[in-house]
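notes to self, project folder thing:

trying the whole complex as one job this time. last attempt i did each chain seperately and stitching them together was a nightmare. two parts in total, labels are on each line so i dont mix them up again. if this works i'll redo the older ones the same way
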Amino acid sequence: MSPTLDRVLDRIDATLDESLERLFELVRIPSISTDPAFAADVAAAADWAARDLASIGFSAAVRTTPGHPMVVGHWQGPVERDAPHVLFYGHYDVQPVDPIELWHRPPFEPAIETRPDGSRILLGRGTADDKGQFLTFIEACRAHVAVTGKLPVRVTVFLEGEEESGSPSLPAFLDENHDELACDLALVCDTDMWDRSTPAITATLRGLVGEEVIIRCANRDLHSGLYGGPALNPIRVLAGILADLHDANGAVTLPGFYEGVGEPPADLRVQWDAIGLTAAEFLGPVGLSQPAGEMGRSMLEQMWMRPTAEINGILGGYAGDGFKTVLPATATAKVSFRLVAGQDPQAVRDAFRAFVTQRLPKDARAEFKSHGASPGLAVAFDSPALRSAQRALTEEWGTPALIIGSGGSIPVVGNFNRQLGMDSVMIGFGLDDDRVHSPNEKYELSSFHKGIRSWARILAVL
Amino acid sequence: MSPTLDRVLDRIDATLDESLERLFELVRIPSISTDPAFAADVAAAADWAARDLASIGFSAAVRTTPGHPMVVGHWQGPVERDAPHVLFYGHYDVQPVDPIELWHRPPFEPAIETRPDGSRILLGRGTADDKGQFLTFIEACRAHVAVTGKLPVRVTVFLEGEEESGSPSLPAFLDENHDELACDLALVCDTDMWDRSTPAITATLRGLVGEEVIIRCANRDLHSGLYGGPALNPIRVLAGILADLHDANGAVTLPGFYEGVGEPPADLRVQWDAIGLTAAEFLGPVGLSQPAGEMGRSMLEQMWMRPTAEINGILGGYAGDGFKTVLPATATAKVSFRLVAGQDPQAVRDAFRAFVTQRLPKDARAEFKSHGASPGLAVAFDSPALRSAQRALTEEWGTPALIIGSGGSIPVVGNFNRQLGMDSVMIGFGLDDDRVHSPNEKYELSSFHKGIRSWARILAVL
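result (full assembly):
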């Protein structure tokens, strides 16, 4: 380790209380983006972030959109070397706090609590998602600048205020400011560690195609006493089609579904197998004991590298208390496909609709409604930036940093990829139990402190 | 035809206006059994019926039960010959009238209306179900007594006031009055003709087993982003099981399901085929074009002589507007089996539960709720009473009377069979379009008039 980096890390340790005070200032602003009643608070949080960046030496501004503002800050001071230009992304808005009565203390009055084992946690809405997370990066920049007067690489910070509301203004903002925001690489701090002591870089995200299918048979509900037998039952039609969606090995049967789906690199598979995650550990807490996905694939592969078909909802006929001998006119299901990199969302949607339509008996019709489509995504598993960051994390935490996937999606990563032609490296220090969308959100003090130190190291080696 | 019967029929024609006035008196009493607010009216209708029977010469009484009363009347005058003792069943209670605003005239102010084609209909709640129907029999008795001073056979009349409320007091009443009510044969007047000009005797009724199945997997709803793949989805489990319930030919796959199910006699099958009912006629009005029941069976067989499995309701996951990527903890279906004579309801229930349980993957559990069980029923297709009644109906209507089945159930027929050891002959003069449980209930004047004449003939030949 260079003596300079040593001094940067020492300064981070020495000024942790000031870093925490800045986090708490920001957490005290109730920047709930989904509720119009908090619009002024959202704006106040954007102002706070721009001022904070300016205090480090960024040229920062609050940028208006049709919705909540964006904050963009460019480091225009000296950099240490002709390094890549990175775009750092975070979001300063937070989730609503309902049900408020379940909070043990007011959500916007942050506090530090010491647990029986001596570990400490930061309490309050946004301590983790995403105020605490994105400040780990900003504070790392602050320390570099304080010690050296420079940043190791060129940095642009880009903070959004609508992430918890579906980012309605993001795509247009990226298009309108393409040249300003298109960098060599994006850094995204909105993900988790593998566990409390093991850092992780997220390299795959799954996309999603949502479909609603309505099967229509008779022109009205019929009585099964009279019509039971001759009359076609749409629930039976629907159940038959849905039952066909998977084969006996748990694979999805849509023709062409796995086209373009790649295998994880051998070294990654070895790493994932070495994690040794058991069904008891992962599924036990939710009352299950056995992986139910594709046979022959580990649970981590099933979640991170394999697409799925899921029935998220079904409704038909009489579903209230008691019993009615009705033959309903319609039956409906909501079906989603989690996609991985290489799959075409529109092709999957088309394949599903054809699959259903081909299985309709005479007298049954199907209607479809689209509920969103986003592709899956994988960054290059062996890019120099990712490998450098992995080494830096390993040094900081003393435990090998894992390359992992995410079963869900982080839409902005797709936007960066498609609109700005930019790969992302997703590093975050959240934990499974941070309750990020629930009452009593917390962030580990170790996540905050070692998160800052981690970014300081990563900036130094990028 | 005997000269005596001729005179009886002439009298029926001559006194039709008086018969109608009696029907209208009864229809004016709003004897809605399901609504406690009408309890006094239900009692008044029972009183009316007992007085009416007494006016003919029956020894009649209103008999209390824990619910609404029964009316029992014994003919104790002379009979023409040593004939069978018949128990005639009807019900004097009626359905509620909601939604009242859809009635074209007040439901309890009966009236006669002449249609453009010259046919006339009786309007009002209960004109068909079952006040008009059961009075066809009473008025036939009145005419016989008026002309001859006798009835052709021994008659006991048994009228219920809870048929539209599920007959809660019936089983105990039959047990407590077994010896008084157990006759050689029951006559039940609560069924339909085949069409406006074709009389029919109903010889089969389907029973019903209702089952609710709840599939439970995880101990709480999960997010498909994280758990999609490894976590078992109860909707998928349920759809797979339900899809298995029928084979490719539309037959039910429960082991033993068809045990005891008989074939219709050859002459009945010939008769049914001769009806020539087309899918366009039967299914066209409800928007279907093709029978969906067991292949190789006519629609009439599918409805009258074949058991079915139907999914009457299904619910799981998110079924509201929009989309949620939930993996639900549970999924539920309501399944019913229409049964025919020879099937054991408990065996069908057991077979269904075993069928579901055997198909559960590890980590899925099933809970079951019973929603009633009643066996299917078939009277002897060739009993002398049925054949005599068929000839009498054929003579009255000038069109061969059909032996038909009913896809639904008439529970009292099962009670008579099981509790009193008595077969029933089901003859009624209702039509499909009588709107018996809907606003604007009507009964054809021809059904009432020729119904009385039909019973007069049947009484003469039994």
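what i see at first glance: The two ends of chain B are 14 Å apart (CA to CA).
need to look closer tmrw
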